[in-house]
Amino acid sequence: MEWELTEVPGNLASSLQAIVDVVAANIEPKLASTLIRQLSQACPLENLRHVKRVRRRTECGKSELSIILCLSTGSQTCSKQLPVDVQKIVDTYQLSPFSAKVSMCSATSKEEWEEQCKLWPTSYHPAHDLSIIHGFREDELPSIFNCMKIAIELSKVGNAVIIVDPLSTQIIAKATDKTHQHDTSENKFFMKESTDNNGNLLLPISFLSKCKSLNMEVSCINPWGWMKQRTMGKKPLPSENFFAWHPLRHAAMVAIENAAERDRLMFPSTSITKPDSNGNLKNYNDNEPAKRLKTDTKDKEQSADESCCSDLSETTRPYLCTGFDIYLVWEPCAMCAMALLHHRFKRVFYAFPNPVNGALGGVYRLHGEKSLNHHYNVFRVSVPEAYLNGLNDGSKEC
């Protein structure tokens, strides 16, 4: 398996709602080739070339083959829907027709293809021209994969996140889950993924073997995992620098906070510090707007020497994380996904889907909600098993 990048569409409704009714029948495996040849002549499926004529399913340990006879005409009785030539084939081989549903359109992504195959197997031919996929260029792939490697290697326990400026490939901020105190003494990196009987993606195998339920360390998967230490009779968790741990300090939230702190240091304002009514110190500045759009700090034609010598305090402070990319080891939950939206990220990359609370493809598709005032592109990075095994062995193999 190689490193791969797959776009996670925001809405699958368009392709999955386009369904066609067909008439099918169960057949003996030895008759498959003969029936395919005869039905291709008697009733070719010209508009359904992406649909496979034969479907194999295993039920109760027994393999079963089904073949599409023809398109449905809408009649309630299957025998009345068959053309004359198809009816002859049914009578000759004593077939028992039944109704089935297939997808009308070919899949545009691997995810759509997996959903279509739940109805009836279809063919999927991914686009070789990556420019067709919206949101990235082919020459960006090495940088994207390298950023995901950095995030994965940062993830000793729970989730890990890095924020990257795609224009300079500079890492803006890093973070890991800070919802509770992590115990890294027995931590092992998760290995490979597995699927259930329906082909649904499960958590990595070693991840499940560590604990019988969902992993307690990934905040986006188990947001109540921080409670475990309170119920185990241990000492109160230490707190440093104004809540070093907190139930809402998921990795994405901490990374955003770190990016904001970086902006405050690099783009100091002229604000003054005053105590509020509660005695807390706050910054006040009547001359600066509350919000600023992200703009270039210097003229594009300015030389590198001039840029290095320029005073950062005179440049315009970026507006939140507009235009930045964020890399997450685990797919974010709804809270984190909304935080990414509010901070105007351009692209979101994650390695492992969140089958419990995933908001970007795992369970929900928040990035496909048209009513939201900002949208970002979402991609899943498929990580080679050999790379993960190398991490567990202490060697970083690509």
From TrEMBL:
Name of this chain's protein: CMP/dCMP-type deaminase domain-containing protein
Record-stated family: Belongs to the cytidine and deoxycytidylate deaminase family. ADAT3 subfamily.
Residue segments, region Disordered: 269-299
Database matches in PROSITE patterns: CYT_DCMP_DEAMINASES_2 (PS51747)
Residue ranges, compositional bias (Polar residues): 269-286
One example of a Gene Ontology biological process annotation: tRNA processing
Record flagged with keyword RNA-binding: no
InterPro entries assigned: CMP_dCMP_dom (IPR002125), Cytidine_deaminase-like (IPR016193)
Keyword vocabulary terms for this entry: tRNA processing
Residue ranges of every copy of the CMP/dCMP-type deaminase domain listed in the record: 243-379
Basic and acidic residues: bias regions: 288-299
